Amino acid sequence: MQTFADKIIRFNRELHFDGSLPPGIRIMNPYREQPGVLDIMAEFYHKFYGDTHTRRMILGINPGRFGAGVTGIPFTDSQRLADPCGIVIPGVKTYEPSSVFIYDMIAAYGGPEAFYGDFYIGAACPLGFTALKPGGKEVNYNYYDSRELTEAVRPFMVGSLRKQLRFGLETDVCFVLGTGKNAVFVQKLNEEQGFFKQLVFLEHPRFVMQYRLKRKQEYIDKYLTAFGR
Questions:
Q1: What's the pLDDT band for 135 if we cut at 50, 70, 90?
Q2: What is the tens place of the pLDDT at every residue in 180-208?
Q3: Tally of domains in the chain
Q4: Containing domain of residue 145, as a range?
Q5: What is the rounded CA–CA span in Å between residue 86 and residue 42?
Q6: Domain containing 12 — which CATH number?
Q7: CB under 8 Å to 35, separation ≥6 — which residues?
């Protein structure tokens, strides 16, 4: 019997978008672009998901350049992957503020084993995007940052979410990270597709770290309350 990990790993290995994107937008697929990411990702999921238990889903936006864009694991930069997860990427050191919040929350929940035993973190769009600013600097770009991009990747997003639901996810509730544009899009999508019976919206870790840092513990407590902890 396939474990939860086996299903995630296969999904990530097969992730591919072959549609057309708006000018100036590049899709970011760490599983095909970053050397060693497939092995690191597989090690992580075998370690924390090597069972057939059901889990509840947490849905982010899309991977960022310094989190899942490097590690292949949502909201996990190289530092958090090393400690507390115990998986080192040789020669790589990245810092992602959202990862700091998530792993502080995970510590309060009871640690990675307890948390990942209950939850699976995915994203509304499982692949990320970048755009070029004047001068050639590459920056993160979200699926909702332009209507053209949203429409271009919408079928891919719907199909990817359907595949993830087959991992062994509970569908009574989904926790959505982001109370703005991500919330609006996921709410409408769920009304159309009927993925989950209930959506619970939580402030995105990036928002907390950038605008509410002094109240971080308050938001961690809010997450834990939502999770029934």
A1: confident
A2: 999 999 999 999 999 999 999 999 999 99
A3: 1
A4: 4-226
A5: 14
A6: 3.40.470.10
A7: none
